[in-house]
Amino acid sequence: MTEPLRIAMWSGPRNISTAMLRAFGNRPDTAVTDEPLYGYYLRQTRLDHPGREEVIAAQPDDWPTVANRLCGPVPDGKPVWYQKHMSHHLLPEIERGWLDRLINCFLIRDPREVLASYTRVRETVTLADTGLPQQAALFEQVLERTGTPPPVLDSKDVLCDPERLLTLFCTAVGIEFSPTMLSWTPGPRPTDGIWSKYWYDSVTGSTGFVEYRPKQVTLTETLEALAEECAPFYRMLYAHRLGQ
Q: Nearest to residue 79, comparing CAs of 26, 6, 137?
């Protein structure tokens, strides 16, 4: 029996991660999972997010249970399992060995755009909140283990040419591109996290990837300094992006 492909897409916040979840969820051969470590993350950090108690109640309270599930049988017996992750959910105490059983991939976005968007939702943001250091560390772990840079997608590239970038990505992870990934019916999905009612309004109403439009980003002095901290991590990952 052929081992299923378990694709772990590690993203930072305020990216196109949910649109990517829609794209893969529209494939007939693919099961999808939405941020399985979110409940553990909120329990451990005690951060106040919308629907916090609902999220914690809906997910396992220990990371080994989550890890075992993600490495176990694929829902509905599908040959492909797309797992949407926020890289900042990968807290330091979470052992990393189980990640070697997944195809770890990375979704990045210009940190200045991330910070401008993030601070419209939460008042404060730290370097760890961006997920970039965690993405960079996991990228290096995969590269050291395999000798091959893992797949990286930049959200701007995807939005500028979804078919080309998704084709490149599918080739990189060992599956065929499907045109079903480019459009979908609007509305919620049973696979959406319980937090979707707080965060997914724009994606719930979408029918495909929205064309990229350049943004005029203005940051405070504090956020500009944070963007400078983010820059080395982003540049390293960006240098390995697909489609360049």
A: 6
